[in-house]
Specification:
The protein is mostly helical. The chain is built from 16 helices and two strands.
């Protein structure tokens, strides 16, 4: 098993390198880079990016200073554009910039944000707790609901319980998370009904002064509605996947043989069927976790005013803040590969018969 883990870790290196290379190549052909973004703002277009530019010994801290300098000239000064490109690092050839970026990423040096003028790693550290909270709680709750519900539906296949729970799950899956989030805000955040939960933030302003129990209570108080909004439709796929997987195993010959031997239904279900049926459910865990960690959180973070990685990445893409974009891409790719490896290792925990050592990576 140690050899398999080592091979998988070594395989992560070319995988991440390929992801960064493809993304970097695409960005080179994408119109409207950070330099064009600044120049568009100088022309009075509606953009939200700001920059900290220094060149020729004169520091220009914001794009409002750029604008006053630019409007005083009849046209764009080539020297000014060259200094601007140098500020963003675009004076170097693309291959040089790419390999320099890869070299820095090996030590998690993501550089500084183009338009915030702070280290990217600091921004990620600030936003990471929010995304981890949403992703972990959503994944945990969805699996805690989906697996028992899917097993119960498989055991009672075709019953009234199976029919009405399927209807509830499908309706929940059809409701967009952001729409459910708005409904929860109206109901429980002082909209038109009750003022029970806070409207924004992950913690209260006096969080640092609270006791340990008070901090836990305050954190759960803030995270309840965002997690509920994201979890509503998240467990539908896993529920039906669990049900169908258990139904497929229950109908196999070894279950009939076990019943003929006099084994109880509980022993058959959890001693034999569970181990085989859960394999396909576990296979989908990495994708579900990564989706919860990033993909599903953007609108929820916006609605509940939570500064997470989803919102940070979206703002970086809009503003062409490439250091943040590539840093988030690198972190999520690395996280996905690690979670995928942990998923494979979980296979061996559930079914010791699986031996990855005898298989190709």
């Amino acid at each position: 098993m140690l050899g398999y883990i080592l091979r998988r870790i070594l395989l992560m290196i070319p995988t991440i390198f390929g992801i960064l290379a493809i993304s970097f190549a695409i960005v080179q052909f994408a119109p409207g880079g950070p330099v064009e973004h600044i120049l568009a703002q100088l022309q009075g277009l509606n953009t939200s990016a700001t920059a900290n530019f220094s060149g020729g010994g004169n520091e220009i801290a914001t794009t409002s200073n750029f604008q006053s300098t630019y409007r005083g000239a009849a046209g764009l000064d080539p020297k000014f554009v060259a200094e601007l490109k140098k500020q963003f690092g675009f004076d170097k050839p693309p291959l040089t910039r790419f390999f320099l970026m890869v070299k820095n990423y090996l030590t998690f040096d993501f550089g500084r944000s183009y338009f915030r003028d702070v280290p990217v790693i600091d921004l990620i550290k600030q936003r990471l707790p929010v995304s981890i909270s949403l992703g972990l709680w959503m994944t945990l709750l969805s699996y805690l609901i989906s697996i028992p519900l899917g097993i119960a539906k498989a055991v009672r296949d075709g019953s009234r319980f199976d029919v009405w729970t399927s209807a509830v799950v499908i309706v929940g899956y059809a409701i967009p998370p952001f729409l459910f989030a708005v409904l929860l805000i109206v109901l429980f955040c002082g909209g038109s009904f009750w003022q029970i939960f806070p409207l924004r933030g992950l913690t209260s302003e006096n969080f640092a002064q609270l006791s340990l129990f008070g901090k836990v209570e305050d954190y759960l108080w803030h995270v309840t509605l965002p997690v509920l909004s994201m979890t509503l439709g998240a467990f539908a796929t896993v529920t039906f996947l669990t049900k169908n997987s258990f139904l497929d195993e229950i109908r196999k010959q070894y279950v009939t043989t076990a019943r003929m031997k006099g084994l109880t239904e509980g022993r058959i279900l959890y001693g034999h069927v569970f181990r085989n049926a859960m394999m396909i459910v576990i296979a989908g865990f990495p994708g579900a976790f990564i989706n919860a960690f990033f993909g599903s959180s953007l609108l929820i973070e916006t609605i509940f005013s939570l500064n997470g990685l989803g919102l940070l990445s979206f703002e970086a893409i809009v503003n062409r803040d490439y250091p943040i974009v590539f840093a988030n891409l690198y972190i999520f790719a690395l996280l996905g590969l690690v979670v995928n490896l942990l998923s494979d290792l979980t296979y061996t925990w559930i079914d010791p018969r699986i031996d990855f050592e005898t298989r190709d990576v």
